[in-house]
Amino acid sequence: MMSGTIPCPMLTVRPCRGLVDEKFQVVVKNLPPGLKVTLHSLHQSEDNDFWEAFGHYVSDTKGTVSVAEDVSVGGSYQGTEPMGLLWSMKPVPGSRTGLRLQKVDVRTPMVVRISVYGGHVSQGFREMAALAFADVERWYMVPGVRRVDIRESDVKGTLFIPPGPGPFPGILDLWGGSGGLVEYRSALLASHGFVSMVVKYLPLGESVPSDIGLSYFETAFRLLQQHPLVTPDRIALFGLSLGVSVSLSMAVYSKVAHPQCLVCVSGTHIISIRDSLAEVMAEIAKNVHKTRYNEEKQVIWRDLILPIPSDPKKKIDVGQIKCPLALIVGGDDQNWPAPESAVDIEKVMKDAGNSHLLTTFSYPMAGHLFEPPFAPLCRTSIFIGQNRKEAHVLWGGETDAHAHAQQDSWRKILSFLEQHLHSSGEGMLLRAQLEISGSR
């Protein structure tokens, strides 16, 4: 380089391709020492909404900023937060209200542009020229994961199969009351070595089908169990919200489904699923008068099934659970009484002598919607209920605390599943085989 020339700033993100639950490192070099800069992330969702995050930094004596090591002194996150450019994302100013960032097509990556700007900037990024930028791809599927549509025995769902000869442990993935077919968690679980089948059991914005009950989920369980690449005696149930009630009901009442372990996130044992899910939802609807609203007119539904009934017949008898159970609980859950339910579950299981099967992970300021690591908090969003009625629902959670809860709980969930579904050493070997090579 000729004497007197000023090198151009250089921004790198490594790895530039990786799983969504994998950390990356953002480094900017060739800056003047002591320069104030802003690191900015921008993502355009599949709904064509823009999400952003930013942090304010000062370059060190070598003219370098490392997001993994340096402190953000302002912006959408503060402190040393290696992944703050992802988990603190929010819709850009002027966006539609009630947005939730969810991946629809898991066969394509989430693309995020990371840019560096001169000065400590908080707005107007589109009107400014970046000093440097780099694009990063965040995937839910490692190369070789197969996605298979399931339309069999009246069950609708999607199966994700890891690469390799198998057989693999299986997971039946059960989402909540929002309905539809949400695939991204199952795709990510397959990337960690599990055959995962996500099941659709509630239509979007329509009435609950009268023929959906425990037998529907038993059929789905058998389909997964009978797959030639699934180890039939190593199957877990993974439930979120209403999916927790389904998972607990199956573990206690089913004569055909015998899960090896349960992962229950933000749910309750108060709702028992047997003959008809529609009847259960109708019973809950009778308590609509218990709905609360905050100052912003956002709906709070957690009181609809409170108080916790003392009558054992009015809740799932978790004292009969015979397999390990992991509860994930957000202390600021404004949608479901998960904290109160966890306390009662622990009491019932202790009285029944099976509390040794229970592991509870509680996060005081986390909300209802636990996502894979580094996803932005959805504190409130538009919920489309039956008959296409929209409600602006409060899910709860504080941004920083919820982000750290998602990262910690996901690590513990994978460890729990590995412990109870994989044989010794099998999971570590498989994970090494599945690591992304850096090219697609």
UniProtKB/TrEMBL annotation:
Lineage summary: Eukaryota, Metazoa, Chordata, Craniata, Vertebrata
SUPFAM superfamilies from the UniProt entry: alpha/beta-Hydrolases
A Pfam family hit: Bile_Hydr_Trans
Boundaries of every BAAT/Acyl-CoA thioester hydrolase C-terminal domain copy: 213-422
Coiled coil: none
Domain of life: Eukaryota
Native source organism of the sequence: Albula goreensis
Occurrences of domain Acyl-CoA thioester hydrolase/bile acid-CoA amino acid N-acetyltransferase (ranges): 21-152
Listed InterPro entries: AB_hydrolase_fold, Acyl-CoA_thioEstase_long-chain, BAAT_C, Thio_Ohase/aa_AcTrfase, Thio_Ohase/BAAT_N
Catalytic site: S241 (charge relay system), D333 (charge relay system), H368 (charge relay system)
GO molecular function, one term: fatty acyl-CoA hydrolase activity
Similarity-based family: Belongs to the C/M/P thioester hydrolase family.
GO biological process: acyl-CoA metabolic process; fatty acid metabolic process
Protein name, entry field: Acyl-coenzyme A thioesterase 4-like
